[in-house]
Specification:
alpha/beta; Rossmann fold; Alpha-Beta Plaits; CBS-domain; 3 domains; five-stranded parallel beta sheet; five-stranded mixed beta sheet; 16 helices; elongated
Length: about 500
């Protein structure tokens, strides 16, 4: 950075010293302001935070030491480097200055060459600090703010909104089925797509708006002085432009869509985190209703309306309450054993038309699960065809009991990237539920309504298989939460 990129504030009650320092620093290219004491310096810092403060030790109203102490207590947008001018040279005085927040000292009378050399040296320290701050507050892939920084700015804007009675809205956006992009096209293409999405969101925002990468393929947007209606219009424009977004160069047949949740800061909100939570709830509703849409939180809290998002969800919930996992699962027949070869298991999945199957031990205990993707990789190597399936199976298995409410299964599949999970009865594997069976169930249960779309639509339920259950129980799901079994 050049000297012109740095702002310097000089605080000294000696007019002659102020004029001298101002001439030297402006001559070197720095942007300089000058005040007569520490109190005026505090006011100047609050109105426009400088990069450097050069202050005299002895001043009226607020001296240099007191100024340093107050600056270090202030919430500033970046670190401020403080240089103290003094005739004091005792070790205890210098120690006291450092303890109060000073970074460097210059002994009077001041030499121009030494001052400018100290400025260049301290500029290197500031630049390193800025680089570390950027790394801590921005996402390395997209260049957007991190979730932690987003919440800090949202908290600040929320307080301003409360004081000034100005509207404030938050938008949460999630890319639909983005794991499918990584699985089919690779993570390099997925990363390039995330960068394009981040650039799209930034290009559609004002300077006062804030965009962050909330996590994975989810993004958060803060829209100051914007009510929910206008925030929804912004989200709809972003959704349309996202659907029309061109894929990275050299990639064909790749399209992405996004689900958006919108919420406005109301008088009843106690903190900024609740605003983000409301937007997240609206986002979850958008995903439950079929994705690739915008849902406002106010529509969820409104009076029941059969055609509103809340009304549709209420209808769905009534059906959800009367169904459980066994109503949705694809039954299993003759579960494979961990000693079976990879080639045999591949034939088994082909016969069943399944994409995954649980694997049992010799004593009929659940050993893990095998997925067609893992088998494809193994079958590509001829010498691995006769290897036992235990070499490629996954021992981390998600299990739900057959009497688990269907709402729990649905919520879980919406939150995670898994496509299949194992259904058990009294600890014994009896079926498989995947996104394809969930899609088929929605299609059959809510004809003409908003169905949940899935990249695995071809994986429909197979009802022609029947179960041969194992005799050894596994961990039972007592509280309708997923059970992760780890063997070995």
């Amino acid at each position: 950075m050049m000297p012109a990129d740095y702002k310097v504030l000089i605080a000294d009650d000696d007019p002659a010293m102020l004029r001298l320092l101002h001439r030297w620093l402006t001559g070197a290219g720095y942007a300089v302001r000058a005040v007569g004491d520490g109190r005026d310096a505090i006011d100047a810092i609050e109105s426009d935070c400088p990069d450097f403060i050069i202050t005299d030790w002895v001043m009226p109203r607020l001296n240099g030491m007191e100024l340093c102490e107050q600056v270090r207590k202030m919430s500033l947008p970046h670190y401020v480097y403080i240089i103290i001018l003094t005739v004091k040279n005792r070790a205890e005085d210098l120690i006291a200055g450092l303890d109060n927040g000073a970074d460097d000292f210059l002994a009077k009378p001041i030499a121009q060459g030494e001052l400018l050399a100290r400025m260049k040296s301290s500029a290197r320290v500031l630049e390193l600090e800025r680089q570390l701050s950027r790394m801590a507050h921005t996402d390395a892939l997209t260049g957007l703010l991190t979730q932690r920084c987003f919440y800090k700015l949202l908290e600040k804007e929320w307080h301003r909104s409360q004081r000034s009675h100005l509207p404030l809205s938050c938008v949460m956006m999630d890319l639909d089925y983005f794991k499918h992009v990584n699985d089919v096209h690779g993570h390099a293409v997925g990363d390039a797509m995330l960068k394009l999405v981040a650039d799209l969101l930034l290009a559609n925002c004002r300077a006062s708006d804030t965009v962050c990468r909330y996590g994975g393929e989810e993004f958060g947007v803060m829209l100051p002085e914007t009510d929910e209606k206008n925030a929804a219009l912004w989200a709809e424009r972003a959704r349309e432009r996202l659907a029309a977004l061109a894929p990275p160069a050299g990639i064909e047949g790749l399209a992405v869509s996004g689900s958006f949740g919108v919420a406005e800061c109301g008088e009843d909100l106690k903190n900024s985190e609740k605003l983000a939570d409301h937007a997240d709830q609206a986002l979850l509703c958008a995903k439950r209703m079929g994705r690739n849409r915008v849902v406002c939180f106010s529509t969820l809290a409104a009076a029941p309306n059969p055609k509103s998002p809340a009304g549709i969800l209420n209808q769905q919930d009534a059906v959800f309450q009367s169904h459980c996992a066994r109503d949705l699962m694809t039954p299993l027949a003759n579960c494979p054993r961990e000693s079976d070869s990879i080639e045999c298991i591949a034939e088994y999945l082909l016969r069943c038309g399944a994409t995954a199957a649980p694997v049992l031990t010799a004593s009929n205990a659940l050993a893990g699960a095998v997925f067609e993707k893992d088998l494809l990789v193994a079958l590509a190597t001829p010498e691995k065809r006769r290897s036992p399936v235990s070499t490629v199976m996954r021992t981390n298995v998600v299990c739900y009991e057959a009497d688990t409410p269907l709402r729990v299964i649905f919520d879980f599949l919406c939150r995670v990237a898994l496509r299949e999970l194992v259904i058990t009865h009294r600890g014994q594997p009896v079926g498989i539920v995947n996104l394809g069976t969930m899609l088929q169930w929605f299609h059959d249960t809510f004809p003409g309504g908003d169905a949940v779309e899935s990249p695995d639509a071809h994986s429909s339920a197979r009802e022609d298989n029947r179960v041969n259950t194992a005799s050894t129980p596994i961990h039972r799901n007592r509280d309708s939460a997923p059970v992760f079994r780890l063997d070995g």
